[in-house]
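U., I forgot to send this yesterday:
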Amino acid sequence: MTTPSTSSIPGSPQSATSLLDLYYLEMRSALLETAAGFDRIRRAPGGEEALDDPRIRALSDACAILADGGAGQTRRILERLSAEAE
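Result:
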């Protein structure tokens, strides 16, 4: 039996594969729930107009940050969502 390699994240005692195994289903669920929320809003009366709401735009921007694969995603998403709350 081989020992899993450690993550390249300083201070992380688990490998990237171990972290993926641990968090995949939770992350998948959160993404599906977010997509379902967008779908419910879009289908509701006035849904297309609601898509122009600044909160929806902030959530859409957060999804784009996830998709861009850049560094500091958590910080960037938090900053985007916090800016909307002000």
